[in-house]
# Entry
Amino acid sequence: MAADERVPTVVVDHVDIHYRIFGTGEHRAAQQDREGRRGALARAGHRAIGGGQDLVHAVRDVSLVAHRGESIGLIGRNGSGKSTLLRAIAGLIPPSSGRIWVQGQSTLLGVNAVLMPTLSGVRNIQIGCQALGMTKHEVTQRLDSIVEFSGLGDAVNLPMKSYSSGMAARLRFAISTAVVPDVLVVDEALATGDADFKERAQKRIAEIRSEAGTVFMVSHSNAMIRKQCDRAIWMDTGRVHMDGPVEEVLSAYEKAPRGPRKKG
# Structure
């Protein structure tokens, strides 16, 4: 696609995102120590605001434009804001300030809102696919192929609450890519499942890109980002540290394995 024909699908305009962490200070500190999360919270810009609460400034003045056919990998250390930004693009959390515009429907994380843990995988496929615009007849026609893609087998007849996190992630991915979305948001979904599922998922992402969908992906695997993305955004302390061609950004990131330090 020529540069003058590029069609924007996502516009993030000077977005900031804050959220609160609740709990007593002693309990919170003990939990963070056990889970090794103090560094991540510090990088996310948290501060105590009293009443057993912390305010986390997870995303700071982020602006970007994504275009049709792009596959964009978000990289950065834990607490850098990449997953929070993707959840905002998927419509799960609102910006505290700034604006996010998405053409059509942003899906994968967004389909979570309609999936019901007490219902079977089959019933969730029916509900989820209809929420994405498919008719009942279309869902019936595609049901077997969606189940096969998920790799759940007979477990698809069990309640979703009985699934492991990996099984649930595979089901969400299968539902969300049953139709080509305008914007597909992938937050470590490809880290789940066996090699066969990962290969199927990677092929599905390639198909979405070929049909001019836009893909956003978070992964701690640089090899995965290299394989699936043509652009990378390096997040650090809630800000965009670098945005450009995937190899250029990853090479810079890998030369600074601890990431840049916050100034001041």
Summary: The chain has two domains: 1-29+51-105+181-257, 111-180.
